[in-house]
Amino acid sequence: MSDVRRPIKAALLQVHSLAGLALALLWAVVGLTGATMAFEDEIEASLNSHIMRVDASARRRLTPDELVTRLQSAGDFGRASAVTMASDPSAAARIRFARSEGGARPSSVYVDPYDGHVLGSPSGEDFFATVRKLHRWLLLAGDGNGMGRKITGTAAIGLIVMLITGLVLRWPHRARSVKMWLKPNLGLRGRGLHRSLHAVIGTWVLPVYLVMTLTGLWYSFEWYKAGANWLLARPQPTDAGMQPKPPRGAAADKREAKTDSSAEAKSLAFDRVWTTFLQQEKNDYGRVLLTLPAGAGTAVRVRSWPRDSSLESVRDEFRIDAVTGHVISSDRYADKTFGERVLAGVLDIHRGAILGWPGKLAFMLAAAMMPLFAVTGLLLYLSRRKHRRLVRPPMGRLVPGE
């Protein structure tokens, strides 16, 4: 190594080591929770298959308001805030509820779309909700409005630094050798094995981690989201009918609780919105989610997914006035530019779903490997310190002027 490159690599090693020591545990938590959620939909579908399906019938299916009315007559479930309907005659409807005054959200329930009787609450819903909060906000107070969101965002930036410095530090003399880049030397022991695993497996997952961090920053910093929108999306005209997205977190929960009474006073319902949506789509949908506004507005958000799509991002979105049935805005996936489709698919890209189940599996395995880098990185740091102590001459044996 040349005399010029040696101090540069030494400085990069210091940055790499210190950042790793400071953030390794946090990265391990985020990685393991992300891996846990990789196949959340499939796990929940398997656990709850007995309440998510019903016997198809030629009878008329109930409207959303009829379902909510029958549910409320069956027990005190709280105020319904969202209803999921499907075009599949054997799919159960799902009803979600608004947060209570204490900020807790009751579990959702599946109901029979033909008679409205309760099929049950989904298993695993509360577990994955807790894992998601740990992944995004570290379970810190304030949720999305608290410090947890900024901490995970800062950790994502730190991981990008680690990826860049790690790539520079391990750049081999034979850079064109595929074996040098991708094959760990399992015949080594101790520090050599730790270094080989750390470097080679790090190379395997580097592209995945880069995608994860660049998309994860979307959920952490508004300036990052604004910059991505400026770069990839067309300028959007201001629509007076559109309502701003309510803030997240504990403060938002309190504001939501305060405005529940005003929303109830207006007796917002789903059926007028549902009728308008069916007129728009003419039954050309697979699944649709109707969500009442959290505040005192009247614009209901309607998200519609086609029958042949398994991606969260491939959907049409509408805002429909619950009082008049007027369509306030319409945002169809087919009308989006390539850049806007990328922005709409940030979550699917973040978890690898954009590549189907093989992509989700690859991203899950990469996320689950994060603790490996924490352990091997710590072992390498400790071994370097031990080596320095062994090669450094004792101060008492130094001759003056030596």
Written overview of the protein:
With 402 residues, the protein is an alpha+beta fold. The chain has 2 domains: 164 residues; 164 residues, no CATH class. Helix content is 51%, strand content 10%. The protein is built from 15 helices and 8 strands. An 8-stranded antiparallel β-sheet has the order 4-3-2-1-5-6-7-8, with helices on one face. Strand 7 and strand 8 form a beta hairpin. Helix 1 runs antiparallel to helix 5, helix 1 packs across helix 14 and helix 9 runs antiparallel to helix 12. The longest helix has 32 residues. The protein is elongated. The chain starts with a helix and ends in an 11-residue tail after the last helix. The C terminus is likely disordered.
Whole-angstrom Rg: 26 Å
Overall pLDDT confidence: 87
- How would you sum up the major sheet? 8 strands, antiparallel
Oligomer: single chain
User: How many helices?
Assistant: 15
Total number of β-strand segments?
Answer: 8
Query: What structural class should be given to the helix and strand makeup?
Result: alpha+beta
Between the first and last Cα atoms, what is the distance in angstroms? 27 Å
Shape: elongated
